[in-house]
């Protein structure tokens, strides 16, 4: 999909479709009003007749309207004007895009980006529109033998700004929005790819191929032999039960001199999590192919950053492995020595995420990072705590937590902060090792974060538990691409400091 920005009156657009908003109850937005004035009240007469109330998601497609240059006008219901939140706004955009794609308009100009949306400026409205449009048309059909193709698909969307002065900012928003949606698509495709195809080496190959596309990006893959020599025994204790070789993927994006301390992004890359010897129940186990969504979002973010050629240094570290039961797999009660030297009693082999992340986090120390942010589908408990709307945020440095929360507000890809209080630490005591890898029933997402914090004492660190937000279940099963948008925004903000 192609996007651009423009300012100008709706009647002057020579295009397949002009899209304007109508509020509930039957109230015209400024651009709809302008079209109404030029047609002697034709649009308002339709509303009075009851064709459109203005409820969010309603649409009405009109053809051959007098005194305009377009083929069609699409009226889109936006709900009540003062209730227009970014969530509602994205739904409205999504409805419009679906109708246009199904009714043969290959190009359209959206005046919806001029509507006031709570807490959003014009640039945010443009970015939301691009993300919503792209995600509405996203399909993962690579593995279907017959693809549903649309005969005249929507190819080009022009987004309007109300004032010529806003054009430059609008164009920047389009550049950012397109880079971010590209990153989201990369993350979604990796997440949706089944575990028999998306293996640790598949992730490594995707990272390698990105480095061939972007000049500031270098990728190094550490193989099992090297991981053994380094002493990453916590990481290797998870991959032992799998016939797929584990990989530590290290991606270095450098577009500033090497003096500048990098941002490190660490992503959990468990390409399938069966639980190991502490086997998970069978129902819904297919969804554990999504246990590499942290890795996918980090890869997608690197893609977005490289696409925008941001002036910054970022290093991504992705421990990639499967977690399977086997004669050689780790058993409950096994004790391993992590890369940092801390010993860990593996009381449950299904708490594998923290075992691979702790070694990857210790590995980041050598880069003298400005900050380290890890992203992981870490706990089912996080889904119980926050559901699917916010990722859990934990941090040992409050300015970093603040910046991540702000990036979440800017993009709508939101996080909610949770505590790392010392009182939780006793839940991880082990009789036989320095730490246990599980902390009992209570506060499962917190104790997982507390476990990680033990390996992050030397730098400013934040952890995002994305178990609830990374994918959707049920009829719309699929990866969401979160939190690519949040992470990219954080890096954009950081690069301006
Ligand atoms: N990948 C899972 C977490 C998960 C489960 C995410 C369900 C989304 C939905 C993780 O590796 C795991 O199995 N965690 C265990 C930890 C427990 C054994 C302490 C969990 O949450 O049950
Ligand atoms: Mn697990
Ligand atoms: Zn897992």
Sum up the structure in keywords.
2 domains; 21 strands; seven-stranded mixed sheet; 497 residues; nine-stranded mixed sheet; binds manganese (II) ion; binds ligand BES; binds zinc ion; Leucine Aminopeptidase, subunit E, domain 1; alpha/beta; Aminopeptidase
List the helices and strands and how they pair.
Blueprint: E1 2-6, E2 17-23, E3 27-28, H1 30-38, H2 42-48, E4 59-63, E5 72-77, H3 86-102, E6 107-110, H4 122-137, E7 156-160, H5 167-192, H6 200-213, E8 217-222, H7 224-230, H8 233-239, E9 247-254, E10 263-267, E11 269-273, H9 293-307, E12 313-323, E13 334-337, E14 343-346, H10 353-363, E15 371-376, H11 380-386, E16 391-395, H12 398-411, E17 415-417, E18 435-436, H13 444-453, E19 461-465, E20 471-472, E21 478-479, H14 484-495
Parallel strand pairs: 1-7, 2-5, 2-6, 6-7, 10-12, 10-15, 11-12, 14-18, 15-19, 16-17
Antiparallel strand pairs: 2-3, 4-5, 8-9, 9-12, 13-14, 16-19, 20-21
Residues 273, 291, 348, 350-353, 377-381, 383, 438, 444, 467 line the site of ligand BES.
CATH topology heading of the largest domain: Aminopeptidase
> Main sheet?
9 strands, mixed
Number of helices: 14
CATH class of the largest domain: Alpha Beta
Proper CATH architecture of the largest domain? 3-Layer(aba) Sandwich
CATH superfamily placement of the largest domain: Zn peptidases
Bound molecules: ligand BES, manganese (II) ion, zinc ion
Strand content: 15-25%
Q: Poorly predicted ranges (pLDDT <50, ≥5 residues)?
A: none
The tally of domains stands at 2
**Straight-line N-to-C gap:** 32 Å
Calculate the mean pLDDT score and round it: 98
Give me the Rg, rounded.
25 Å
Oligomer: single chain
Instruction: Say how many strands there are.
Output: 21
Which class do the helix and strand fractions yield? alpha/beta
Indicate the percent of residues in helices.
Answer: 25-40%
Can you tell me the overall shape?
elongated
